[in-house]
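Write out the 3D structure for:
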Amino acid sequence: MTGTSADFSYRDVDVYPPYPHEDPRHLVGTADNGELVRVAKLDGRVVGAYRLVRTGEVRFAIKALVVDKNYRGHGIGRWLLGHAVGIAELKGGRVIDAPLAGESFFAHSGFEPAGNILRLSLTPE
């Protein structure tokens, strides 16, 4: 990579639990106990992250999902969202809530307003 954000695709980004020395708080805030944090890494650098928490037997909430401003516009946010939804579904999730502040982003993936949050309902196969 030459250092510019135009030199990559979201497919070049890997999503992992953060290593102990990686601190994504500057992107997604501090995780509470029980919250799952994953980071998006490009060439070893954290470029995005999300926080996901189980809020009920089949319900999860995305507390934060952020991509570093220098890496936006390349699909990393959608990549992270797909990862978060997949993790929730793998753990038995059927409903995923997200912050209303991200309505324009989350609406593209099927989230709909539900009071003061956005909600995605998953249908089991």
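Helices lie at 25-28, 76-90, 103-107.
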